[in-house]
Amino acid sequence: MTFRILVADPLSEEGIKPLKCNPKMDVTMQTSLSPEELLEEIPKYDALIVRSQTTVTRKVIEHAKKLKIIGRAGVGTDNIDIDAATEHGIVVVNAPNGNTNSAAEHAMAMLMSLSRNIPQAYYSLKQRQWDRKKFIGTELKGKKLGIVGLGRIGTEVAYRAKGQRMKVIAYDPFLTEEKAEKIGVGYGTLEDVLRSADFITVHTPLLKNTRHLINADSFAIMKTGVHIINCARGGIIDEEALYDAIVAKKVAGAALDVFENEPAIDNKLLTLPEVVATPHLGASTVEAQENVAIDVSHDIARFLNGAVAENPVNLPAISNEHMGKLKPYFTLAEKLGEFLSYLTDDAIEEITLNYAGDITEYEVTPVSRIAIKGLLKKHLGTHVNEVNALYLAEKKDITIHENKTKSAAEGFTNLLRLEIKTAEGKFCAAGTLLNGLGPRIVHVGEFHVDVTPEGHIVLIHHRDQPGVIGKMGNLLGKHHINIATMQVDRSDAGGNAIMMLKVDRHLKQESIDALKALPEIQDVRTIDF
Ligand SMILES: NC(=O)C1=CN([C@@H]2O[C@H](COP(=O)(O)OP(=O)(O)OC[C@H]3O[C@@H](n4cnc5c(N)ncnc54)[C@H](O)[C@@H]3O)[C@@H](O)[C@H]2O)C=CC1
Ligand SMILES: O=C(O)CCC(=O)C(=O)O
């Protein structure tokens, strides 16, 4: 099978070699598609790679009938409708590490351009003017740099600013005293940073709660003569408020690499001499472009080959070691979910996943997602996957509970008990991973069994009476159904009982009806794995 991959923004040729050299990947570079052309093209592709130029809207995702993965060769995914991708079961991956240095270096270059008026002076000289008085700058040594967002790039900026002998203060909701000390920066609230800094640089993602994080109120409490740098995302700073603050001489100057609307040809901030700007060049170095292209190419190839993506944006990221431990449980979880879904025809209202034994030592949500995928598969088919399983369950008003009790493994090393509640009542099955032998279903409701979840299974609820097994065997024989294995269990003598048969082929409706017609048989369910 060959996967078709569309590269819709310019990407390092060297960086996408891992995909181009892979015989299973068919890569098409079309880097100047209009939004309409993208809508036309996208149904052909299994994977899409973009930088920040292409906007992957809900409409694009709705047209992308085959799309499995979107790769963002860079950090910010604000040009991709992540919710729409999740709803459609499309994984979004990014390349969060490859351009950190370049973006930090660009922020420093912008900061220094700003402090020494380099772009303005350069422009003036190009106009054949030798003006030395107009471009008096500000020394950085001893000035305070306020960093809003001390993540990967913010931290690298802090190290570089310290190299310039600046004092650094940072605000980040995840910044602890210990971490600030380790990096060698002061820390405080956003207000502390805004009030005390001579230069302020933002390095947060653009999210609902960071849109206009720096606004008119923020400028009001800043020092007069403050300098502002934004090499993160347009929209984190309210551009109107920044314009007004510069005109009012509250802000001495701003260095901007990013804008609320890009390309920002007509942005009025560009008319101000106090503003230095670049057209979103933070990651535009040979090294960064190669790094992010390599990272995203590897992740796409890995994912399309059936492995787990390393940098998913809409799935929990799992380390290789953790994944190694969890992966064997995926098959068990999916089969158990599938099995249980065949025990009722009613809508699922509630799903409870109880983990016991060794597995409780791990973060089990990835296993739960797969179990839920298994449960919903009967009605949603291939539309449901681990990306959208939780979303689809929520859309269907299904409540999910996940519990871990190490000691409840009932003698097994590990046990996953799955329970669903419907209008009809509760249904439950439990499974274990037998060392070296793979997944086993070990409970169906109150009954004990030992069944490999594969092939064709017939589950019969009946009354515990002499002769039932014989009648059932006879009937299946008449219908030319060969029984491969059989398990029976009962609640008590003469009470409720089950038979779990492995048969050699799918049971047709007439055989099921004939079984159901036997007076001792209460219910017949078939499960085809
Ligand atoms: N100009 C360019 O070409 C480039 C821009 N970027 C942008 O730079 C930004 C930072 O990227 P990274 O450092 O890699 O991301 P990151 O995820 O490592 O760091 C972001 C930090 O912002 C913090 N944060 C979130 N909300 C906050 C808030 N309300 N106030 C303060 N801090 C908050 C987070 O806790 C996190 O530590 C992103 O917006 C990214 O898209 C990244 C690369 C190149
Ligand atoms: O792709 C680019 O050049 C922009 C990089 C960027 O903004 C990011 O990685 O967030």
Task: Describe this structure as you would to a colleague.
The chain has three domains: 3-96 and 287-304, Rossmann fold; 100-277, Rossmann fold (3-Layer(aba) Sandwich); 320-528, D-3-phosphoglycerate dehydrogenase, domain 3 (60s Ribosomal Protein L30, Chain: A), CATH 3.30.1330. Helices cover 33% and strands 25% of the residues. The protein contains 17 helices and 22 strands. The strands form four sheets. The chain has a seven-stranded parallel β-sheet, sandwiched between helices. Strand 4 (69-72), helix 4 (82-87) and strand 5 (91-94) form a beta-alpha-beta unit. Helix 5 packs across helix 7 (152-163) and helix 13 packs parallel to helix 14 (365-380). The radius of gyration is 31 Å and the shape is elongated. The two termini are 23 Å apart. The structure holds 1,4-dihydronicotinamide adenine dinucleotide (NAI) and 2-oxoglutaric acid.
